Amino acid sequence: MNDDDTRPLSDEPDERPDPDLDPDQTPEPHGGLGPMLDEPPGPINWNLLSAHDAEQAWLELNQWVNWLRTTYGLPASVIPPMWHRHPELHWELSALHTHWLNAYDPQQNGSAPIGWHRDFADTRQRLRDWVAASGTRLDRDRPTRQTIWPGEDDTGPIEETPITDRDQDFVDFVTADVERRRQIEQNYYATLNLDIGEIT
Hints:
This protein is mainly alpha-helical. It has a domain at 47-144 and 160-199. The chain is 43% helix and 4% strand. The protein has helices at 51-71, 87-103, 112-134, 166-190, and strands at 140-141, 161-162, 192-193, 198-199. It has a two-stranded antiparallel sheet. Strand 3 (192-193) and strand 4 form a beta hairpin. Helix 1 runs antiparallel to helix 4 (166-190) and helix 2 (87-103) runs antiparallel to helix 3 (112-134). The longest helix has 25 residues, at 166-190. It is globular and about 55 Å long.
């Protein structure tokens, strides 16, 4: 989402993530994997989420990814600690999460989980490819390198940083993302003439 994107996101109130939040331990029912849903969810377009919805989606996805990596014993070469800082990883994991929610919906066909596991095998290989290309590791991280096209500005050197507190980094990342989205919303509403319902 660009800073000059003037599409309305939401006027719902939102809050910053709780800095004391432990992503691995929440009081939610059903194994801590989120509430039972009235109907299976559709795909999430992260580019269009409001600040409030993005915060909820980040926390839910983080909780599920922690469950996934521990349940299946996945190494950092498949799901690294800093997956949230790599869009190619969080989009892939988000799609896998939505697929899982639908496959395990009570109204789903009983063979759906087998289909999810088959797709999960394909997804693991894609995740390995993404992780290898991005350069993120268990103990250090760097932004994914971008190919500079002719006429584009060079992004400068890419440096690795050590990972000292992954959970705190996640909270900081989500706080910044929510604030960025909130600012876009505020900028949009600041240009909205409420008397005529149009942008001025």
